[in-house]
Write a structure and sequence with these properties.
481 residues, alpha+beta, Glutamine Phosphoribosylpyrophosphate, subunit 1, domain 1, Rossmann fold, 2 domains, seven-stranded antiparallel β-sheet, binds adenosine monophosphate
Length: 481
C-alpha cells in the first residue's frame, strides 16, 4: 500500500505491510490478531481488521501495534464477531498516520460489502487515481489501494469475483491482496509474485498470510505459496484457483530473504533463516579477512554472521547488544530521529570487543546511518580493527514495489564507491556480497541475466514492471521515465 499526502503527490511512498486472513473459524478475529502479531515486523504504524459473520461486516482499526489494539478480551476484539476475518499491519514513514488510511478498507458496493487489505505498491496508482477522480470517483483515503475498490465498483461484470479479476487486469505493480466479499475470502498475487502470500489450514479453516510465521503462532499447517498471477477463492466448498492474465516467470523480491521476512518463515520453498546463513557463508568465501571474532549487527545480521563465522572458522560472538524495546531504525520519520534511534537500539559489549580484530556483519547498508554508528561504537569499545561485511549487494536503487527505501540520492551506495563508503563509515575494510554470490546463496547456479529469477531492482536498477504511467518511477532521478 502506498500512501500519498495529496492524491497526486506520490513522493511519500515508503510502505511495507502485512496481510492476514482466515475463513471458517469460530475464533476468526482472535486468530487474526495473533497472525498479525506474528507479522508485526512488516508494519508497526497501524493495524486493522474486518470480520464477517454471514450477515454483517465489522471493522476495527487503530494506530500502533497489534497488541495495543487487539489485546485479549478487549472490546475492540470482542466486537469483531464472525467465522471469517482479514487483517493488515501498516508500515509507513510518511506523516500520513491518519486513521482513514488504515486497512483493511471496507466499502459498500452494488453487490454487497467488500473488504480489502494490500501489501505492495501499485506503480500505475497516480494514473488510475487521476482517471477515476476525473470520471467521478470520490476517494476517502490517500492510498493507492483504494483505486482497486473503485475499479471493482465500476466493473460491468455480474459476478463479484469477475469484477475483482477485471479490476486486477487494470492495476500494475506489486501486490499481495486479501479480501472478503459475501461469504468468500480471496487471496491474490501480482503477475510476478513480488510480494509473498502463503496458504495454510487450521482444522476446517483456511488461512492466508504474508509469511508462514503467522501460521506457526496459531498452529496452522502450511499448504503452499499462492502463485504469481494467481487468485484463490475460498468458501465453504474449499479453495478454487484462478489465473489472472497470462502466466509470467515469477520474480519474488530477494530483499524479503535478505532483510524483510522473519527468519523463521519459509517463503517460496526456502527457509529465510537458511538463505541468510548461506548468504553469510558465500560472503565469507568471497571476502575473507583475518580476525578474532565475527559479530552480528543484531538482529538483522545474526543469521548471515553465523553463516560467515562457520564458513570462515572464526568464532561468532555477541559484541553488540540490542535493546528490544525500540522499533526498527527506519520507523523514525526524520534522519535526526533515525540517528538517535541507532544509539537507543544498540550498545557495545566492551569486554568482548576490546583489543580484538573484528568482523561486523549486517544485512544491508541503506543510508549508512547504522554502519557509521556501529563502527564507531566498536572503536570506542577498544576494537583493534573493524571489518564490515554486508549480506547484500550495494543498494543503489529505490524500491517501487512495497519496500521502504529512500530516494536514490539518499542511498549511500548510489553516491559512493565501496572504498569511499568504507572511509565514510570508518571501517578498516568493507565488502558486500556480489550479485552472483547472492544468487548462489539462494540455490541458483547464477543469475539468469535474460530472465532473472528474482526481483533485484534495488541492486541492479532493472525494474521488472512496466514503468509507464507509474508515478513512483517519475519521482526517480535515474533516467526512469
Ligand atoms: P541504514 O542505517 O540507513 O544504512 O539502514 C541499514 C539498516 O536498516 C540495516 O541494518 C537493515 O537491517 C535495516 N534496513 C534495511 N532495509 C530496510 C527497510 N526497507 N526498512 C527498514 N529497515 C531496513
Amino acid at each position: 500500500m502506498t500512501v500519498t499526502t495529496s492524491p497526486f503527490d506520490a513522493d511519500k511512498l515508503n510502505e511495507e505491510c502485512a496481510v492476514f486472513g482466515i475463513y471458517g473459524s469460530s475464533e476468526a478475529a482472535v486468530l487474526t490478531a495473533l497472525g498479525l502479531h506474528a507479522l508485526q515486523h512488516r508494519g508497526q504504524e497501524a493495524t486493522g481488521m474486518v470480520s464477517f459473520d454471514g450477515v454483517h461486516f465489522r471493522a476495527g482499526r487503530g494506530l500502533g501495534h497489534v497488541s495495543e489494539n487487539f489485546s485479549a478480551g478487549s472490546e475492540k476484539l470482542k466486537k469483531l464477531v464472525g467465522h471469517s476475518a482479514i487483517g493488515h499491519n501498516r508500515y509507513s514513514t510518511t506523516g500520513e498516520s491518519e486513521t482513514r488510511n488504515i486497512q483493511p478498507f471496507l466499502a459498500e458496493l452494488a453487490f454487497g460489502q467488500f473488504a480489502l487489505a494490500h501489501n505492495g505498491n501499485l506503480t500505475n496508482a497516480e494514473r488510475l487515481h487521476r482517471s477515476l477522480v476525473e470520471t467521478g470517483s470520490l476517494f476517502q483515503s490517500t492510498t493507492d489501494t483504494e483505486s482497486i475498490i473503485h475499479l471493482v465498483a465500476r466493473s460491468h461484470q455480474n459476478e463479484p469475483t469477475e469484477r475483482i479479476k477485471e479490476a486486477l487486469m487494470q492495476i500494475e505493480g506489486a501486490y499481495a491482496l486479501v479480501c472478503l466479499i459475501d461469504d468468500k475470502m480471496i487471496g491474490m498475487r501480482d503477475a510476478l509474485g513480488i510480494r509473498p502470500l502463503v496458504l495454510g489450514k487450521l482444522d476446517d479453516a483456511y488461512v492466508l498470510a504474508s509469511e508462514t510465521c503467522a501460521f506457526d503462532i496459531i498452529g496452522a499447517e502450511y499448504i503452499r505459496d499462492i502463485e504469481a498471477g494467481e487468485m484463490v477463492i475460498i468458501d465453504k466448498d474449499g479453495v478454487q484457483s484462478h489465473k489472472i492474465g497470462k502466466a509470467k516467470q515469477s520474480r519474488f523480491c530477494v530483499f524479503e530473504y535478505i532483510y524483510f521476512a522473519r527468519p523463521d518463515s519459509n517463503l517460496e520453498g526456502r527457509s529465510v533463516y537458511k538463505a541468510r546463513k548461506e548468504i553469510g557463508a558465500v560472503l565469507a568465501k568471497e571476502s575473507p579477512v583475518a580476525a578474532d571474532i565475527v559479530i552480528p549487527v543484531p538482529d538483522s545480521g545474526v543469521p548471515a554472521a553465523l553463516g560467515y563465522a562457520e564458513a570462515a572458522h572464526i568464532p561468532f560472538d555477541l559484541g553488540i547488544i540490542r535493546n528490544h524495546y525500540v522499533g526498527r531504525t527506519f520507523i523514525q520519520p526524520t534522519q535526526a530521529d533515525r540517528s538517535s534511534g541507532v544509539m537507543m537500539k544498540h550498545n557495545a559489549n566492551a569486554d568482548l570487543v576490546k583489543d580484538k580484530d573484528i568482523i561486523l556483519v549486517d544485512d544491508s547498508i541503506v543510508r549508512g546511518t547504522t554502519s557509521r554508528k556501529i563502527v564507531k561504537m566498536m572503536r570506542d569499545a577498544g576494537a583493534k580493527s573493524v571489518h564490515m561485511r554486508i549480506a547484500s549487494p550495494p543498494t543503489t536503487n529505490p524500491c517501487f514495489y512495497g519496500v521502504d527505501t529512500p530516494e536514490k540520492e539518499k542511498l549511500m551506495a548510489a553516491r559512493m564507491t565501496v572504498d569511499e563508503i568504507a572511509k565514510e563509515i570508518g571501517a578498516d575494510s568493507l565488502a558486500f556480497i556480489s550479485l552472483d554470490g547472492l544468487y548462489q546463496a539462494m540455490g541458483e547456479s547464477a543469475r539468469n541475466n535474460d530472465s532473472p529469477q528474482f526481483c533485484d531492482a534495488c541492486f541492479t536498477g532493472e525494474y521488472p514492471i512496466e514503468k509507464i504511467g507509474s508515478s513512483a518511477y517519475e519521482r526517480s532521478d535515474d533516467g526512469i521515465a
